[in-house]
Amino acid sequence: MGLSRALKLHVSARHIAPADVLTTRVVLESDAVATAAEAVAAEAGSVARKSPTGDPRTGSGRVHLRRAGDLLARMREADIAKATFHDLDARFHRELCAAAGNPVTDIILASLSSSILDYVSAAADGTDDWPWVQAELTAQHAGLLESVLAGDADRARRECADHIHWFAATTGIRATTGSSDSAPADTGSTSTDAPANAIDAREP
User: Fold this and answer.
1) Full-prediction pTM beyond 0.85?
2) By three-state DSSP, how is residue 81 classified?
């Protein structure tokens, strides 16, 4: 993909409905983290066989996974500002996906980054129990990273999709495409049950 096309996508993405961006994230990110986990598993297999060869992406992938771990540690800091958490959250996802070694996926997600940050920030602002949401997001991030580091591709894929859908369901991002609006969940409850107009967290 040429740089000019990537930049055009970056600009137009700000007008794409959050539900459409979310669907794209699920497809791309779930596949990326599964690929990263497969590379980790392949590296472990090469070491066990004492093979000098292995997935050439693993070296750089490990760098991205270490960075993801560092970002996760910062997300756990006490009294972290919401805007700072969102920035670290976005970078954490980018590092996990970059560990897959697919530059096309990296370019597409980079082009969508502003739109992703916009809808995540707006949705988070719609909940009055942000500390709970933040703690749950951090715990899910930790589980996702653990799955990748364990080389469990199926679990990483599943947890990534569940993570993205969970946030949408919890904060009330509308499933209807063609609209850039997001609807906050009922702030009178901190239940993880999705509101009626939200994307089902269990949706495939």
Assistant:
1) no
2) coil
